Hints:
single chain, mainly alpha, 0% strand, binds heme C
Amino acid sequence: MRKLLALVVLAGGVTFAADGAAIFKSKGCASCHQPNADTVGPSLKKIAKAYAGKKDQLVKFLKGQAPAIVDPAKAAIMKAQLTTIKGLSDEELSALADFMLKHK
Ligand code: HEC
């Protein structure tokens, strides 16, 4: 019985705490963004540096409400990707931003 209860609590935790790393993977972001190397898109390290101390601005970018500051010349490629995260809640976008900002 006690085991069952622990399982229920655990499952609830997974459902409610947004996991930025998991979102990043499941939305396909990782196919263009590596942790340390620039590939199709800039590295997460570069993104984290550009947005250091500017999490609000990063969340705005993810919502399509702020311009690209990392590689504006390629902004059209990235803009097309924003549709994949359109339905995410503020909490999920915040977790996604936190995950990227950890790569400094
Ligand atoms: C098809 C390749 C591709 C995919 C998939 C992709 N990106 Fe990008 N991303 C780019 C390119 C190219 C840039 C550089 C242009 C720019 O800076 O906006 C970029 C830039 C960015 C930036 C920097 C924005 C800035 O201010 O310049 C962030 C943040 C970002 N991507 C997040 C994401 C997230 C989150 C996902 C998944 C939802 C994602 N990307 C998926 C190609 C991609």
